[in-house]
Amino acid sequence: MRVIVTSDHHLGYANCDKAAFNAFLDELAQENDLTHFVLLGDVVDMWRRDASGVFLEAEDTVRKILALKSKGVQVFYVAGNHDYHVLDLSNPNYPITFSKELTLNDGPVTYRFVHGYEFDPEQKTPFMRFLCRVMSDAGGALENQIWVDFNSLNNIFSKIEPSFVKADIAAIAAKLQRGPEVRLKDSLSKINATACKQVKPGEVLIFGHTHIPFINKAENVVNTGSWVKDSDPHNTYVELVGGKPRLFTFGPPKQEITERTDWSGEEGYEKTSSTATQATQKAVSKLRNIFSANKPTQEN
User: Fold this and answer.
1) Are strands 255-257 and 244-249 parallel, antiparallel or unpaired?
2) Does 263 map to a domain?
3) Which of 9, 127, 167, 238 is least buried, going by the fewest C-beta atoms within 10 A?
4) Does 127 reside within a domain?
5) How far is the C-alpha of 130 from the C-alpha of 151, rounded, in Å?
6) What is the pLDDT of residues 146-173, one digit of tens each?
């Protein structure tokens, strides 16, 4: 059993390295011992691009992924926060199935795959769902149609619910739109520590989201990194064989990242929330209440 894992390609984003990822897929197609290929979320960027258009633009990449499947490689797609909408794609005729998480057993070891937004308290499902429905090809600038839509939505919400603060959602969404290299600058260690505290005995936990690749010293927690040029290093991937993870940058030349990082002494996120997280939860609660109160009911 040989598993290759990649994440955070952000296809459709101006700084994604699509050419390198396509070359990587071409190399995988030449290998004969690959058994499983896991796409660990944020494969396409639905927060910055139209959800349909970005898949059309990435048709060549999709074909290369499906070519691996036609060779007998098992292909899995775990949703991220930027492509959370794929969880709504449930047609059995689709060539790929989508899931929130994945587990694979390799002898006595269990590989558990999650995107990693689960460890980031600012990521909430209503925001991930809404931002994936941008339906705009404006390219991701803060002044583009996304924010026009947010202003319209805020106006509607404020009329429905007078206590709704217009700035709540727009401010939080603006923060979420910033790249993890900036947004997670002060919280990266807590996110990684939270992940390390959640790994179970006999398990290797693999996640992405932060764009910062690492393997911990116990070699049971791995971050896959990203394929966007904003990050350094980028174009990284994980190989899993015999319960042991290895981390590489795609070449030329291919290089293994052998450094191991210890997050065990760091303080993770606990159940108590920071002020910023509480603000996010407050806005999410308002969103849910508004949608619930105005949801159409079926007539008998």
Assistant:
1) antiparallel
2) no
3) 167
4) no
5) 13
6) 444 444 555 544 444 444 444 455 555 5
